[in-house]
């Protein structure tokens, strides 16, 4: 049974020459759309839009479903149900059919085969077959805006194929037989110079020199009148040769130079990259034929540069009727030996018909001959895998009619600077493109069966095309192994799974290694160290500390690595590696000498530690400092001058600081581990990083247990207890605080005892046990009276007042909080003043003085904001709403509670979010009673 599906004419389905009834026009519309995009999913919304445009009927989606249901029935009745299958898939429909059954796809395959044909005779025969596939206007009888646009594009494809076919036929001496067709084409395209050139040449070869010259003059006059331009050089040259009766024009063998067709085959499984392909289209369309267009496609090894270049080239063959040149410059390859441009030139000259035995030996002479041969021609030159601009520049045509694509891992800066190249950087695939790649290679059914697992594979491969292709190869060559096992191997073994012992081009580590061949030792060491540097990325000061180089030297090295596509530069001076490139860098770091690695880690940890310590001293100048060892040689802490710059630096580098503590722990730098926890405490509390605070203090306790100084262990245990209390983990909090107290008592350290009692007061306060809290706070006050620590004493006095107020002893509460406020004002401690004012606001509200309460809360809020303490600011806003409610000021209460709600959300304080939301919900129904303070004195317990 012979099945034919046609769109190049009327939409038809024929079985052994007999037409299958397809029903009314809209069903033909739908079938035509699916045939044009055969074997690709077309969304239901896309079908609706293509049928009805902007004004679809109300039940459009159901109508589409009905049309397709009827089409299935008609195709089944016609006996082609096994050959043509329409399936619903992924929010749309797909028509599954062998491409050669569809005339459009058969036409495209014949054109592509002709482009890759080994000789002109074979190419000519294939293009003749392609021309016979057409039966008239595509999608004849159907008319929608979408069909009109598709029809126009298909006509362009047909025109380009016919132009190539006629060129080949003229070279084979068939000018007489072609005259009727060429005359008709010239009437249909009166301004097309390629069509005119073909007709002029055919007329001249048929003995009609006068007619040939007359047609040229008619075209020249029409171009001048309608477009204001002269004929292009190729046509003017033909005119001059006719006037001179050039003997070469009469011999078909010498009618035109050899047309090179050097492009490798188009990638069979190419997916995605729609944005990049469109950008290449724009690069050519913007410049037209006015200037040389060089799109230097950059990107790391295995990112898909060559596939993108070849895909675009094959989709645009019609733009380059005079041929395509291709050379692999081997800039990054297993051999490590880039192609000499002189060798590449010899290959191009041979492809352009020059005798291999008579080529110029001098590079400049060969380049000059090459430029002469391609002058005025529409030729595409693909220079693949370039290492340097020196390889590329001799291969650039001098003619504005040629187009060049360059691929390489380096930026090739001089091409951009001196030759106006458009740089198209190539990154990883989008999630959708990565999924499409896997689906294309291992099948839709397997990918869709486990969408979660597919997402895992995509992320484990970092959406890197070669990594995905290797993973797909593993999956297809081992179909019995579930995808879950492949994902587990990637998760556990990482880069090793993407290696290949035999074929280096099938190994991601090997492909990445070629990028290092042209690096200096200094650049290779920096690349390796970046793989093991703490944090997700790095900025210039941290990188300088990591390498031990000056910032100027480091900047040059980073720029070189960026130009080799080994790292990317992001805003604010940050440099980041792709996860798999970083994993490879970490592998290469194993080859460094241990002292080199250790010194680098010491420098970068000390850079982060000492800069964090500087920031902490700015944020909390009243906090007693701890002595730090001098930074390692070569580690230059980043200078910070004021509170905004300190907070901005801590916000930007917080992930790096957590990672630096892990690095310090891995290298048994116990002092650095505990010191980093100390230096981060104020920042964590002001920004509400409660889980991170717990993690760093747990690490600090582990480190402090190995240090000789008991004060480190006492403080670490106390802060760990506080971190547990922050998260509502009361039992763990009390346990760690009592451990801290026991060590402080054992070493007879009254200051540490006082601070631990203070922490216990806060922890019991979190549990609403005000009596226990008051007892511990009072004990802290008693101990501190004999010590010269006024800020801690003020904190403890305020805490006594707070819990006394909760127990109804407002006179005691007010006197203690006022005394605490006086001490904090004397010490110019804005955080402490704000805490005391917040407490006094609470006392005033509880005793019915709501206006005074509002004044205290407002003053506290201003102070908290002045020191960027968003955690306490949220609590004060929360508290401020209650006296407003008591005074009937509902709008003011709603405003401050909404602000508190947003801050609580930002800080991940879910219980507080729920409580304030309830207060807002109840606001218009009843006056809320003063809420219990859920978080008080955080700054003083954690920041000092």
From TrEMBL:
SMART domains from the xrefs? BTAD, TPR, Trans_reg_C
Where the record puts its DNA-binding region(s)? 1-97
Please give the superkingdom of this protein's source: Bacteria
- OmpR/PhoB-type domain residues are 1-97
The reply on keyword DNA-binding is yes
Instruction: From the UniProt record, list the TPR repeat ranges.
Output: 714-747, 874-907
- Transcription regulation is among the record's keywords: yes
The segments labelled Disordered in the record are 619-641, 924-944
For bias type Pro residues, the affected ranges are 624-636
Xref: SUPFAM superfamilies: C-terminal effector domain of the bipartite response regulators, P-loop containing nucleoside triphosphate hydrolases, TPR-like
Q: Which InterPro entries match?
A: AfsR-DnrI-RedD_regulator (IPR051677), BTAD (IPR005158), OmpR/PhoB-type_DNA-bd (IPR001867), P-loop_NTPase (IPR027417), Sig_transdc_resp-reg_C-effctor (IPR016032), TPR-like_helical_dom_sf (IPR011990), TPR_rpt (IPR019734), WH-like_DNA-bd_sf (IPR036388)
Task: Give the family, as the similarity comment puts it.
Answer: Belongs to the AfsR/DnrI/RedD regulatory family.
This chain belongs to the protein called BTAD domain-containing putative transcriptional regulator
Organism of this sequence: Lentzea rhizosphaerae
């Amino acid at each position: 049974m012979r099945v034919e599906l046609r769109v190049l004419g009327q939409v038809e389905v024929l079985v052994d020459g007999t037409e299958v009834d397809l029903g009314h026009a809209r069903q033909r519309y739908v079938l035509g759309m699916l045939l044009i995009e055969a074997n690709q999913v077309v969304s239901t919304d896309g079908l609706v839009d293509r049928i009805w445009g902007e004004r679809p009927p109300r039940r459009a989606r159901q109508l589409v479903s009905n049309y397709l249901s009827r089409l299935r029935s008609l195709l089944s009745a016609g006996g082609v149900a096994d050959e043509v299958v329409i399936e619903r898939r992924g929010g749309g429909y797909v028509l599954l059919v062998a491409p050669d059954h569809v005339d459009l796809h058969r036409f495209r395959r014949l054109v592509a085969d002709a482009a890759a044909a080994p000789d002109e005779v074979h190419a000519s025969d294939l293009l003749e077959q392609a021309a016979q596939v057409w039966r008239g206007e595509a999608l004849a009888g159907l008319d929608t805006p979408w069909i009109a646009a598709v029809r126009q594009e298909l006509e362009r494809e047909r025109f380009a194929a016919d132009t190539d076919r006629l060129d080949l036929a003229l070279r084979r001496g068939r000018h007489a037989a072609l005259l009727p067709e060429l005359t008709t084409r010239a009437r249909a395209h009166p301004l097309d110079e390629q069509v005119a050139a073909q007709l002029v040449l055919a007329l001249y070869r048929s003995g009609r020199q006068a007619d040939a010259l007359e047609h040229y003059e008619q075209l020249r006059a029409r171009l001048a009148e309608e477009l204001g331009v002269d004929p292009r050089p190729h046509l003017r040259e033909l005119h001059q040769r006719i006037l001179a009766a050039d003997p070469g024009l009469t011999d078909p063998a010498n009618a035109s130079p050899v047309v090179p067709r050097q492009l490798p085959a188009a990638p069979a499984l190419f997916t995605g990259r729609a944005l990049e392909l469109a950008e290449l289209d724009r690069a050519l369309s913007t410049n037209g034929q006015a200037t040389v267009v060089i799109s230097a496609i950059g990107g790391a090894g295995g990112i898909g540069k060559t596939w993108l270049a070849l895909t675009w080239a094959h989709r645009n063959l019609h733009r380059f009727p005079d041929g395509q040149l291709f050379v692999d410059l081997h800039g990054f390859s297993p051999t490590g030996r880039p192609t000499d441009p002189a060798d590449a030139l010899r290959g191009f000259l041979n492809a352009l018909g020059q005798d291999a035995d008579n080529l110029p030996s001098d590079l400049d002479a060969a380049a000059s001959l090459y430029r002469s041969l391609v002058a005025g021609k529409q030729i595409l030159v693909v220079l693949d895998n370039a290492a340097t601009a020196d390889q590329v520049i001799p291969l650039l045509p001098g003619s504005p009619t040629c187009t060049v694509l360059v691929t390489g891992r380096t930026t090739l800066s001089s091409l951009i600077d001196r030759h106006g190249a458009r740089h198209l950087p190539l990154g990883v695939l989008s999630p959708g493109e990565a999924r499409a790649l896997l689906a294309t290679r291992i099948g839709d059914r397997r990918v869709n069966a486990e969408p979660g697992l597919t997402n895992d594979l995509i992320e484990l491969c970092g959406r890197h095309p070669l990594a995905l292709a290797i993973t797909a190869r593993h999956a297809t060559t081992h179909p019995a192994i579930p995808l879950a096992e492949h994902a587990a191997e990637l998760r556990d073994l990482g880069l090793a799974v993407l290696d290949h012992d035999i074929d280096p081009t099938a190994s991601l580590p090997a492909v990445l290694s070629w990028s290092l061949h042209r690096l200096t030792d200094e650049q290779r060491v920096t690349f390796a160290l970046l793989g093991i540097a703490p944090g997700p990325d790095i900025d210039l000061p941290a990188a300088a500390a990591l390498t031990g180089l000056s910032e100027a030297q480091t900047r040059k090295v980073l720029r070189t690595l960026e130009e080799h596509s080994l790292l990317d530069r992001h805003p604010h001076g940050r440099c980041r590696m792709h996860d798999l490139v970083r994993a490879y860098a970490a592998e290469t770091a194993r080859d460094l000498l241990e002292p080199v690695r250790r010194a680098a880690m010491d420098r970068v940890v000390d850079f982060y530690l000492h800069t964090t310590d500087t920031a902490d001293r700015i944020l909390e100048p009243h906090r007693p400092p701890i002595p730090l060892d001098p930074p390692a040689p070569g580690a230059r802490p980043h200078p910070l001058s004021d509170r905004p710059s300190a907070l901005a630096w801590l916000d930007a580098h917080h992930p790096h600081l957590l990672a630096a503590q892990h690095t310090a722990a891995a290298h048994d730098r116990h002092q650095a581990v505990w010191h980093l926890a100390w230096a981060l405490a104020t920042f964590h509390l002001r920004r509400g990083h409660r889980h991170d605070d717990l993690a760093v203090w747990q690490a600090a306790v582990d480190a402090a247990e190995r240090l000789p100084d008991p004060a480190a262990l006492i403080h670490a245990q106390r802060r760990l207890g506080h971190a547990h209390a922050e998260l509502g983990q009361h039992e763990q909090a009390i346990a760690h605080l009592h451990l801290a107290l026991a060590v402080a008592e054992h070493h007879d350290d009254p200051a540490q005892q006082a601070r631990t009692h203070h922490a216990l007061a806060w922890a019991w306060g979190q549990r609403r046990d005000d009596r226990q809290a008051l007892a511990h706070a009072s004990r802290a006050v008693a101990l501190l009276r004999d010590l010269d620590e006024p800020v801690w004493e003020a904190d403890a006095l305020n805490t006594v007042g707070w819990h006394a107020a909760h127990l109804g002893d407002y006179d005691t509460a007010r006197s203690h909080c006022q005394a605490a406020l006086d001490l904090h004002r004397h010490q110019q401690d804005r955080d402490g003043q704000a805490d005391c004012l917040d407490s006094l606001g609470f006392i005033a509200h509880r005793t019915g003085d709501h206006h005074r309460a509002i004044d205290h809360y407002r003053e506290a809020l201003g102070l908290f904001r002045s020191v960027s303490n968003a955690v306490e600011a949220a609590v004060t806003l929360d508290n401020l709403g209650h006296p407003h409610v008591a005074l009937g000021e509902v709008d003011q209460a709603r405003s401050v509670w909404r602000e508190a709600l947003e801050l609580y959300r930002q800080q991940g304080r879910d219980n507080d979010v729920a409580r304030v939301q309830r207060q807002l919900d109840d606001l218009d129904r009843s006056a809320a009673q003063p809420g219990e303070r859920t978080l008080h004195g955080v700054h003083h317990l954690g920041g000092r």
